[in-house]
Automatic annotation (TrEMBL):
Subcellular location: Cytoplasm
Protein name according to UniProt: Crossover junction endodeoxyribonuclease RuvC
Molecular function, one GO term: DNA binding
Cofactor: Mg(2+)
Record key words, sorted: Cytoplasm, DNA damage, DNA recombination, DNA repair, DNA-binding, Endonuclease, Hydrolase, Magnesium, Metal-binding, Nuclease
Major site of localization recorded for this protein: cytoplasm
Length: 184
């Protein structure tokens, strides 16, 4: 009997949070959904973080993912944007951890490499490859949702490999793997 599981992929952001879900049956993946949470209209950063947490919980409670793959923050324009992105990722991770769902982080280059074979691929190249692999009829206007979907597909492709990234099965595992970051 084929094993079945659902993977939720998240591309965290404080302007747009993209997400995608795939179902894995045996060694085949099936597209479930992709979408984005639009946060541009909110000025308050804390409201955005609250909405990211709530939407992630809603996705978890609706689709019951077995695993979460999340794009790790990368150093971009400036320290402030990096901090905001890290916070967005953190609240999405906290939502998953609160439901005891294993989480794995992937660097953007690793996701692009897994999907296209090129770690420097554009968002458009990643989206087109996902469209081809998953048989998507059309692509969204914003490609943040395909970035979230790409994280899920990357996780599927990397399953069973020794080095997958950082995975946490709950708060205890997170604390053990990050002892120096935890204040006592």
């Amino acid at each position: 009997m084929a094993t079945e599981k659902i993977i939720l992929g998240i591309d965290p952001g404080t302007t747009i949070m993209g997400f995608g879900l795939i179902k894995v049956v045996g060694k085949k993946m099936e597209f479930i959904q992709m979408n984005e949470l639009m946060l541009k209209k909110y000025d308050d950063h804390y409201t955005k973080l609250k909405l990211i947490f709530e939407r992630t919980i809603e996705l978890i409670d609706t689709y019951h993912p077995d695993e979460i793959a999340i794009e790790a923050p990368f150093f971009g324009k400036n320290v402030q944007s990096m901090l905001k992105l890290g916070r967005a990722q953190g609240v999405a991770m906290a939502a998953g951890l609160s439901r005891e769902i294993p989480i794995t982080e992937y660097l953007p280059k690793k996701i692009k490499m897994a999907i296209t074979g090129n770690g420097n691929a554009s968002k458009e190249q990643v989206a087109k490859m996902l469209q081809s692999v998953l048989g998507l009829k059309s692509l969204p206007k914003n490609l943040d949702s395909t970035d979230g979907l790409a994280a899920a597909v990357c996780h599927f492709y990397n399953e069973g490999r020794v080095e997958v990234g950082k995975g946490y099965t709950g708060w205890d595992a997170f604390v053990k793997q990050n002892a120096k970051r935890v204040k006592k």
